[in-house]
Amino acid sequence: MSEARRAAVVAVGDELLRGDCVDSNSGEIARRLAQLGIEVEQFLVLGDDRRLLAKAFAELCSAHAIVIATGGLGPTLDDVTREAAADAARVPLETDATVLAELEARWQARGQPMPASNARQAQRPAGSQLMPNARGTAPGFRAWIEGGMLAALPGPPGEMRHMLESELLPWIERTCGRGEGLVSQSFFLAGLAESAFADRAGDWMERGANPRMGVTAHFGVLRVTLRAKAETQRGASDLLAARCAEFRARFAAEIFSEDEPRLELALGRTLLEGGWSVTTAESCTGGLVARLLTDAPGISAVYREGWVTYSDEAKVARLGVPRELIAAHGAVSGEVAAAMAAGAARASGARAALATTGVAGPGGGTATKPVGLVWLGLALDGAVQTRELRLAQVGRDSIRLYAAYAALELLRRALQRAAPRTD
Ligand code: ATP
Fold first, then answer.
1. Mind giving me the DSSP string for 103-167?
2. Cβ < 6 Å from ligand 1: which residues?
3. In this predicted model, what pLDDT tens digit does every residue of 345-369 receive, in sequence order?
């Protein structure tokens, strides 16, 4: 991709700097530009400061073909995006008579005279092109500054989105063409710490690598995105396809999906496709595993019931865990996790049963059974296995979530082994 195809996004508004509002516009614009093969190189958040904005617009436009700003187009004096763009382009503001007449007509239709301050919204930098706003009163514009194009869109996300889709993106496609040579693919993995992933990915993760690899982690689930760049779309696609094939081979056990980011929904799909009936017997996770599993649409075909057996008595009475087992090993033990899973499978008749027992904290830990120790149990078609987790002191809520996702992953791996993938 040539340098000229690069883009930058500026989110304008004091409310963003105060933390009263979180910038969602920039990410949305970047995602849409990426679909046109145009890479966003930087985001900037700036307050309603005319001098700083003008300086930023001039600098960004000299380095980027496309600069998109959102916000600061309202009628009040603190909305200064128009003035700053005119300053950066070194042109005066001009009033668009047609826009002014339309604004007046809108107010007239409401039976009210137009407040004088609204007239500011009919102004834009001389030589710029109008982008009408079908959803609000603030029109946008495209202005040419230092060899780049600055597009100013309104701040409210609904208005921004509409103008982006109906006015700006079609113009970019028409005028600049689709950016060639930028393609990406995501993979979703579980059962691997981020650092362990990095070790196994090796030099694929180096900054200058092409395809470039990015990783984010959420409770043991990794999203890995590969982005390939080349002079042409074909070249980028070939580069990406080759790396994706290597990636699939290297992480075959850990990849749970290439399109579904949520482990519980991907697992739900596998359970439904394979006709695996499933149940849960939970202690420390307090129903989280059941909650996640039942997020999957249609899961009632395979998930009928589950238990939260928090006390020793409940484990004995509901799941038939032998009292002596708890006395000998303690409730948080591999033996009890196994007995819980076997008992839940027996009581429900399900082919698969997941069990959790652990110390979520903050209190209750001992030297041998510290906070973060969790035992998972899985019974699958009569075969029982357990897994010990030693989770870091990340707080009660996080320990429970990590444990719940690890339980789902234990089942997913067992099903993967039971029915190896054919693709
Ligand atoms: P208006 O005519 O509504 O004043 P404007 O273009 O001046 O339009 P702003 O005043 O900057 O827009 O923002 C209006 C509202 O839009 C903000 O209060 C906020 O709720 C939302 N908003 C602005 N910028 C963003 C952003 N980058 N991400 C998400 N929401 C935003």
1. HHHHHHHTTSPPPGGGGGGGEEETT-EEE--SSSS--EEEEEETTEEEEEE-SSHHHHHHHIIII
2. 11, 13, 15-16, 21, 23-25, 70-74, 79, 136, 138, 154-157
3. 999 999 999 999 999 999 999 999 9
